Amino acid sequence: MGLFNYDSKARIIAVISLLIVTPAGFYSKFYNGPASVWVNNSFGGLLYEIFWCLVIFLLFTWIRAWKIGLAVFFVTCLLESLQLWNPQFLNYIRSFFIGQAILGNSFSWSDFIYYFAGSITGTLWIFLIKRNT
């Protein structure tokens, strides 16, 4: 059978993928070049979706890729909608970088397009990992 089984190979590839996607996602928040507003606010949403798809896959390699993508899309759409609600405890969480990165700070209908594209990309990424391990 070899040194690594399916789960460990898939997890190693998922970790390597996260080591690429995570810094790219953080960098998108600080990018200052051409189209920086789009990269900071929209493209980062696509990377955010891919990140969460890979994290869920890393923890639960047996779940089908499309289910992970759908769940991530649903939860991030819910989080986007929470941006319309501004109770004191959510505003406190959003006052920190990580809280703002996870919960966001302003609602935008266009974000749903990037969440959809990111979930599809994350689903395909997981599918490719599963197919090649």
Look at the structure and give the mean pLDDT: 91
Figure out the total of helices.
6
Specify Rg, calculated over alpha carbons. 16 Å
The general outline is globular
User: What order do the SSEs take from the amino end to the carboxyl end, as H and E?
Assistant: HHHHHH
Biggest sheet, open or closed, and with what strands and sense?
none
Annotate the secondary structure layout:
Layout: H1 6-30, H2 36-59, H3 65-82, H4 88-94, H5 97-103, H6 111-131
Helix pairs in contact: 1-2, 2-3, 2-6, 3-6, 4-5
Explain what this protein looks like in three dimensions.
With 133 residues, the protein is mainly alpha-helical. The protein has one domain (6-131). 77% of the residues lie in helices and 0% in strands. It is built from six helices and no strands. Helix 1 runs antiparallel to helix 2 and helix 3 (65-82) runs antiparallel to helix 6 (111-131). The chain starts with 5 loop residues before the first helix and ends with a helix. The model has no long low-confidence stretch (mean pLDDT 91).
Features:
single chain; about 130 residues; mainly alpha; 6 helices; about 0% strand; globular
